[in-house]
């Protein structure tokens, strides 16, 4: 398998560094990014190895380090810190605090014994070890058929890990990019999606129980929460409505005729709910939310197994890693834990598709106002995820750039 190595280094040395590394690692493919802007353009792509120079122009080097895992959650990273100085020592200290260990110091090729060549040889060994695991194909979001919309479900095996916030953030991001969305609160016992838009207590899905499902009836119950976001609220009293067998799936199929994307917020304890197993079976994509601060290796492996038992197809699964801190388990480890749990039971493994940093509470606070943190930043993780989902739904994603005053007075 080809190794893609991205060299994020200043333009003056880019070609020299690339030529030397191509001779040392002839089977690798090398690409270059000579500014922070170019580097961010690679975000969301499958970069195996990232070599980042402290001198890359375009952004403060420490600030860029802090965002690096949002852009490249599972890439192996080698940092080029440069010759010793106060700035270099501060950079190395910040890198270590953020959990980065592959740090080359000194003028290139670096201080011995840990030169850039040695650092990349260590990465090469790590890549070989990863590939000794059972070969599985990375999950790609499958395109939907033209005659229906795309169903995206957000799942978690415990409450309080940010599942509803992820569902709301994705729905708002898609709508802001020009993709109309129905946001469905399937968490009937603990409905919360409407509260994120200040619509708490609004009657919803209970009005549909036992009735013939039609688009006209659904339009009476749907609530316009934001431009482009219509919400099908959960029951106002938190009691599970008396749906007839298969009716929840009927409601969902009707919504898929009306909207290009339907985002569903699912209950955390899902194994015993047959209607939810039906939904997982027809979903094009399931986002498994992992709270990095609360999930151990055992938790993640158990979670992956429960998702399979609940009817989730491994080839249609992605991982959202929230409350991310580089000091905890790396995104690559989380992917590998899923992979190990799926050994012999799947032909594809889920990838980390979004990394939300440890300031998760800011997302929650904004989510309860129907807002999304960082949506004005074109490199925000929600944009990349929404763009991929929009493409699979056969829609163009066009995030709108707004003026300062528009952002100041906006509700979304």
Automatic annotation (TrEMBL):
Protein name per its UniProtKB record = CobQ/CobB/MinD/ParA nucleotide binding domain-containing protein
InterPro entries cross-referenced by the UniProt entry: CheY-like_superfamily, CobQ/CobB/MinD/ParA_Nub-bd_dom, P-loop_NTPase, ParA/MinD_ATPase
Gene Ontology MF terms in the entry? ATP binding; ATP hydrolysis activity
What are the record's GO terms for cellular component? cytoplasmic side of plasma membrane; cytosol
GO biological process entries = negative regulation of cell division
Domain CobQ/CobB/MinD/ParA nucleotide binding intervals? 153-331
Q: Which organism is it from?
A: Ammonifex thiophilus
